[in-house]
Amino acid sequence: MKGIKVVIAVMVSGMMLGAALPHNAGYKVGDDAMDFELKNVNGKMVSMSDFPSAKGFIVIFDCNTCPYSKAYNSRIIALSRKYMPLNFPLIAINANDPSISTGDSFEEMVKVAAEKGYDFPYLVDATQEVAKTYGATNTPHVFVLQKAAGHLKVAYVGTIDDNARKPSGVTRRYVEDAVDALLAGRPVPVTQTKALGCGIKWKGV
Amino acid sequence: MIRTVFVLLVLAYPGVCQAQRAEVVKLEKLQNLMRAGESIQVFNFWATWCAPCVKEMPLLEKMNRERKDVQVTLVSMDIDLDPDPEKVQKFIARKKIQSRVLILDEQNPNAWISKIDKAWSGALPATMIINGANGKRKFIERELHEGELEKLIEEVK
Questions:
Q1: Which of A64, A62, A91 lies closest to A79, judged by CA?
Q2: Nearest CA of chain B to the CA of A51: how many Å?
Q3: Is A11 a member of any domain?
Q4: Domain count, chain A
Q5: In this structure, what DSSP letter does residue B95 have?
Q6: Which residues in chain B are contacts of A199 at CB distance < 8 A?
Q7: With contacts defined as CB-CB under 8 Å, which chain A residues touch B121?
Q8: Domains located in chain B, CATH noted
Q9: Which of A17, A168, A196 to mutate to test the interface with B (most CBs of B within 10 A)?
Q10: Cβ of B48: how many Cβ atoms within 10 Å?
Q11: Is residue A15 included in any domain, yes or no?
Q12: Which residue in A153, B1, B10, B12 is a FRET match for A63, CA 20 to 30 A apart?
């Protein structure tokens, strides 16, 4: 009886903790991810269902303004160029509220995409619903999804690699390792990582 | 003579208006400080490039100034992107920061973010309130607003 009480107490406190920490919500590795329909910098709407032959997706919550996003910019472009031909496209999504972060307005996104020569979709998540559903917390925050039997399974969540400061100092390429493993039909070696980054600028927080 | 002594005393006194130098620390030192003491401690994780961190800093400075029962520590995460701590030193001098400032000198955040708090994603700003007397902790991963710190401190009492 006492044991049951303890179990209930632990469950209740766990639920309360969950409620108090909204950033803990969102996708875990193994979950099915939802598709989205968001406006691209070229004005067209983009969904993952627009890529019927894709084996999976590298979805990155990113922005224009964060120094971490800037540090990873060329690495994100390189990821897209490497994996697009292998039917594993990259999609970047900006969820920052432009009323808090003016440099992340749609117009500024169009500018950055043109300046950097983005050859992948750079979408605006104006309602922030996609970022909330996925559980994105900071930029850049990567979700590698594997397409299997019509589902999009979350295979990796976290950072791009282990050295934000300089690409030459990188020893672990988490996203590349994950996608390479999925393409080869092997298990993903590291499925979850954390990194410092700019918190997503949520509306009304 | 008295005037000279007075001037010397003023010059030697580490006065409230004088800028401090932040200490560069490893994770172990930070963890020891987080465990230390019987009082209530506030650890704020920030960086000079982080706009919401800079915006909320006056609330932490006010807490540090007005509450003698609360120790405020501002932990800079700048080194992850920029190995030179001088930018942080200049920032705290320019802003005349009075709270204790530490600069965390660690790489590969994936290895240590969860050691600071399991709930932390790594997003900045983030703030931890620890009551050393009863072990209660609160962790907030977003910008603080007016009056919120006081409430969080009550919650760990």
A1: A91
A2: 30
A3: no
A4: 1
A5: T
A6: 52, 123-126, 141-143
A7: 23, 137-138, 194
A8: 16-155 (3.40.30.10)
A9: A196
A10: 18
A11: no
A12: A153
* Beta strands B137-140; B100-104: pairing state: unpaired
* Digit-coded pLDDT (tens) for B30-68: 999 999 888 999 999 999 999 999 999 999 999 999 999
DSSP calls for chain A: -HHHHHHHHHHHHHHHHHHH-GGG-S--TTPBPPP--EEETTS-EE-GGG-TT-SEEEEEE--SS-HHHHHHHHHHHHHHHHHTTTT--EEEEE---TTT-GGGSHHHHHHHHHHHT--S-EEE-TT-HHHHHHT--EESEEEEEEEETTEEEEEEEE-S-S-SS-GGG----HHHHHHHHHHHTPPPS--B----EEEP--TT-
- CB-CB contact of A134 with A59 (8 Å): yes
- Spatial distance between the Cα atoms of A200 and A60, rounded to a whole number of angstroms: 12
pLDDT in tens, A153-193: 999 999 999 999 999 999 999 999 999 999 999 999 999 99
Q: Find the angle CA(B118)-CA(B120)-CA(B121) to the nearest 5 degrees.
A: 120
User: Closest by alpha carbon to A114, among A45, A42, A43?
Assistant: A42
Which burial class, exposed, middle or buried, applies to A79 when counting CB atoms under 10 A from its CB (0-12, 13-18, 19+)? buried
Interchain CB distance below 8 Å, B51 and A21: no
Band of residue A150 on the pLDDT scale cut at 50, 70, 90: confident
Q: Look at residue B34 and give its three-state secondary structure.
A: helix
Identify all chain A residues contacting B110, using CB atoms and an 8 Å cutoff.
158-159, 162, 193-195
**Torsion angle defined by CA atoms of residues A182, A187, A189 and A192, in that order, rounded to the nearest 10 degrees:** 80
Range(s) of the domain holding residue A49: 27-199
What tokens were used for B136?
A: 């209660």
**Which CATH number does the domain housing residue A111 bear?**
3.40.30.10
Contact status of B118 with chain A (Cβ, < 8 Å): no
